[in-house]
């Protein structure tokens, strides 16, 4: 896959130095971006479209956030509570993790996964995904695991979850999509558990 960087990546303004009007502009840009990224996806939501939706000049989008990728990451909700699942008993993380991602009460999981998948070829987004994996998964799981290759195994848990979400949300595989949730939780959860506690 080709690595792609945004040509419009600059140092953003310091948020703490903004006056009330600047903070209002920044909030309007963020709200517009959140809406357009959700509706159109990363690629189709252009900086110009975000600026139009926010009622500002396109240059202000880059001035406030530094790049489209940085704005995208700012609007992406990663506080969905997976940390609480990972912090629970290690012996049952596999099934609880799959149940978390398949929970119909969390529709944002699908949107977040598809948005990240579409933008993952961008350097800044990919770097953030690597950082998030290290902080959210490796730091929580590896110290509690036994045996060799603990960090590698913790990252492979992320790979397994990504594989499941890819089948469900990108490929929309009819076999997986049509399977009973309890069956998926048991089968796939135990496969993940085998990596965590072999």
Describe this structure in words.
With 198 residues, the chain is an all-alpha fold. The chain folds into two domains: 15-75, Arc Repressor Mutant, subunit A (Orthogonal Bundle); 82-196, Tetracycline Repressor, domain 2 (Orthogonal Bundle), CATH 1.10.357. It is 68% helix and 0% strand. It has eleven helices and no strands. It has helices spanning 20-40, 47-54, 58-65, 68-75, 82-87, 93-102, 108-119, 123-141, 150-170, 174-178, 181-196. Helix 1 packs across helix 2 (47-54) and helix 9 (150-170) runs antiparallel to helix 11 (181-196). The longest helix has 21 residues, at 20-40. The protein is elongated, with a radius of gyration of 19 Å. The two termini are 32 Å apart. The model is unreliable at 1-7 (pLDDT under 50).
Number of helices: 11
Distance between the termini: 32 Å
Write down the Rg: 19 Å
Named at the architecture level, the CATH assignment of the largest domain is Orthogonal Bundle
Main CATH class of the largest domain = Mainly Alpha
Please tag this protein with its features.
Arc Repressor Mutant, subunit A; 0% strand; 11 helices; mainly alpha; Tetracycline Repressor, domain 2; disordered N terminus; 198 residues
How do the helices and strands line up, and which of them pair or pack?
Blueprint: H1 20-40, H2 47-54, H3 58-65, H4 68-75, H5 82-87, H6 93-102, H7 108-119, H8 123-141, H9 150-170, H10 174-178, H11 181-196
């Amino acid at each position: 896959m080709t690595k792609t960087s945004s040509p419009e990546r600059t140092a953003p303004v310091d948020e703490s130095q903004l006056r009330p009007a600047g903070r209002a502009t920044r909030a309007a840009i963020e709200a517009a971006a959140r809406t357009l990224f959700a509706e159109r996806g990363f690629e189709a939501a252009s900086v110009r479209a975000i600026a139009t939706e926010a009622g500002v000049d396109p240059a202000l989008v880059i001035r406030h956030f530094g790049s489209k990728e940085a704005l995208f990451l700012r609007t992406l909700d990663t506080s969905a509570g997976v940390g609480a699942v990972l912090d629970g008993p290690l012996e049952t993380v596999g099934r609880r993790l799959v149940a978390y991602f398949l929970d119909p009460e969390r529709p944002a999981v699908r949107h977040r996964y598809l948005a990240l998948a579409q933008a993952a070829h961008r350097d800044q987004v990919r770097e953030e995904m690597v950082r998030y994996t290290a902080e959210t998964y490796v730091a929580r799981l590896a110290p509690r695991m036994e045996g060799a290759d603990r960090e590698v195994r913790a990252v492979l848990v992320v790979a397994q979850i990504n594989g499941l979400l890819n089948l469900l949300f990108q490929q929309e595989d009819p076999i997986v999509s049509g399977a009973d949730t309890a069956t998926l939780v048991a089968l796939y959860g135990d496969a993940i558990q085998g990596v965590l506690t072999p």
